[in-house]
Amino acid sequence: KAKEHGRNRLQYHIHRPDAAGVMPLSEQEELRSAIGAKQFFLEYQPQVDVASGRIVGLEALVRWRHPRHGMMPPGQFIPLAEESGLIIPLGLFVLNEACRQAKEWQVMGLPPLTIAVNVSARQFGDPALAAHVTEALEASGLEPQWLELELTESTLMHDVPRGLHVMQALKALGVRLSIDDFGTGYSSLAALKTFPFDRLKMDRSFVEALPRDETTVAIASAVISLARRLRLAVVAEGVETDEQLEFLRQAQCHDAQGFYFSRPVGPGEIAKILARAGDRLA
Ligand code: C2E
Ligand code: MG
Ligand code: MG
Ligand code: MG
């Protein structure tokens, strides 16, 4: 009976593919089978210590090699994965693969780097998240201090007491927590005040117009000094030019990430970059 009801609901949605918040069933099925078919893989983008030019971390970014559409950026499927709940198995793949790869690089003798993994709202709401993180660390042998989880303020502000509880559980595992896309939400300062972050990722929109635009300069400088006062490490996202990097250096921003250093690339390319540059990119 329940099954019957479920089927009707699905058909209803199929005939209304534009219904708000509902993903067409065909795409959902495609996404589900893509997980099984191993069409997802990770690219990594270096994070660089601004003062020394050393690579200090890598952000793992998921990609879908679609059999017909080719390479799909996450913006085209993460929202669908969120809606359908498929972000849970997909996120599990990302977490496990990122930890496995980070440990492999360590074993190869590369200097240990922090690996940053994006965690979406639905994953954060999954009561099994802390257990999944523990399992990924145990399976890979990666020590927890090398794993960073990137969270966004909207994920947390939605239910503050629960957000705090989950963050404390994650911190107790020894992993680091960062606030991603800082400054783009409605309650950025409240999120900083409330939650125990280790790092702040300043959104690309506050880096883009540096150093020409006065307003951007004022905001970026303030965010960097605010973070420093709160003893959070600051990472500037989306650094593309010399001038931006020079501004960030002057403003004493700790770390930077962006096309200026490297686009997100596959694991083989990361190993080459590290070999070529020593561990320096700037
Ligand atoms: P994000 O976490 O803020 O990741 C940074 C995005 O900025 C990446 O886009 C990266 O390629 C892009 N980027 C880096 N440097 C530059 C630059 O200098 N200029 C410009 N224009 N862009 C730059 P990408 O890989 O398309 O990912 C987009 C978003 O998708 C991510 O934003 C993140 O929110 C989400 N995402 C990616 N991978 C995952 C994942 O494994 N799990 C979850 N839940 N979300 C993911
Ligand atoms: Mg991120
Ligand atoms: Mg970001
Ligand atoms: Mg972003």
Structure explained in plain terms:
- This is Diguanylate cyclase (GGDEF)-like protein/PAS domain S-box-containing protein.
- There is one protein chain.
- The protein is an alpha/beta fold.
- 46% of the residues lie in helices and 19% in strands.
- Strand 8, helix 11 and strand 9 (255-257) form a beta-alpha-beta unit.
- It is globular and about 50 Å long.
- It binds ligand C2E and magnesium ion (3 copies).
- Ligand C2E is lined by residues 45, 61-62, 73-75, 78, 91, 94, 118, 120, 150, 180-181, 238-240, 257-259, 264.
- One magnesium ion binds next to loops.
Short description:
The protein has 282 residues and is α/β, with parallel strands linked by helices. It contains 12 helices and 9 strands.
Q: Can you give keywords for this protein?
A:
single chain; 282 residues; alpha/beta; 8-stranded mixed β-barrel; binds ligand C2E; binds magnesium ion
Largest sheet: 8 strands, mixed, barrel
Compressed to H and E, one letter per element, the order equals HHEEEHHEHHEHHEHEHEHEH
C-alpha-based Rg, rounded: 20 Å
Number of strands: 9
Bound molecules: ligand C2E, magnesium ion
Instruction: Bin the strand percentage.
Output: 15-25%
Annotation field: number of helices:
12
Shape: globular
- Across the major sheet, the strand order is 1-2-4-5-6-7-8-9
Distance from N terminus to C terminus (CA atoms, Å) equals: 63 Å
Secondary-structure-derived class: alpha/beta
Helix content: 40-55%
What do the pLDDT scores average to?
90
Low-pLDDT stretches: 1-20
Domain EAL: 24-278
Organism: Rhizobium leucaenae
Protein name: Diguanylate cyclase (GGDEF)-like protein/PAS domain S-box-containing protein
